[in-house]
Amino acid sequence: MRKDTIVIREIEAKDNPKIAKAIRTVLIEMGVPKVGTAYEDAALDCMTETYDQPKKAYFVVESGNDIIGGAGISPLDNYEGNVCELQKMYFMPEGRGKGLGSKMMNKCLDFAKQSGFKQCYLETLPYMDDARKLYRKVGFKSIDKPMGNTGHYSCTVWMLKDL
Fold first, then answer.
1. pTM of the predicted model over 0.90
2. Beta-carbon-side half-sphere exposure of residue 26 (alpha carbons within 13 Å)
3. 37 contacts 43 by C-beta, under 8 angstroms
4. What distance lies between CA 67 and its chain's CA centroid?
5. How many CB atoms lie within 10 A of CB 36?
6. Looking only at Cα atoms, what is the longest distance across the chain?
7. Which residue numbers delimit the N-acetyltransferase domain (predicted)?
8. Model pLDDT for residues 139-158, shown as the tens digit of each residue
9. Residue 152 in 3-state DSSP?
10. Angle CA(146)–CA(135)–CA(141) in degrees, nearest 5?
11. Cα-flanking dihedrals φ and ψ of residue 57, to 5°?
């Protein structure tokens, strides 16, 4: 896979089944519980519609005709305050180790800032070491308890970044 054939762009309706499959494939690979995580989110099968709202965006990583990753920004569910959440950031094996995580993170955080959010929150799992390393690299700090109520009770690592 050549780097110059990889594009990060906003999701389109034709991407819905591809990103749903990619996310579920990565979650299975990582041994993520199927309950209390993104795996069971109804939004996975209708990502374009879910993120086609004010202050929401989902970006995909396209390589040829394949979707090999994605990430999104949305207001934090069940939270009073100007905080967004980094959501559903996953990459297939062929998209890892190429700097795409940093590029995607920049795209998402730029969107969050342009949307007027003051902080960005995320939830992850303790054994997702590479993801946590990337989050810390861009300025996310661990916090002691969850914010809002995302329904992802199996995700036990919470992080926050000032924008």
1. yes
2. 22
3. no
4. 14
5. 15
6. 43
7. 6-163
8. 999 999 999 988 887 788 99
9. coil
10. 50
11. -155, 145
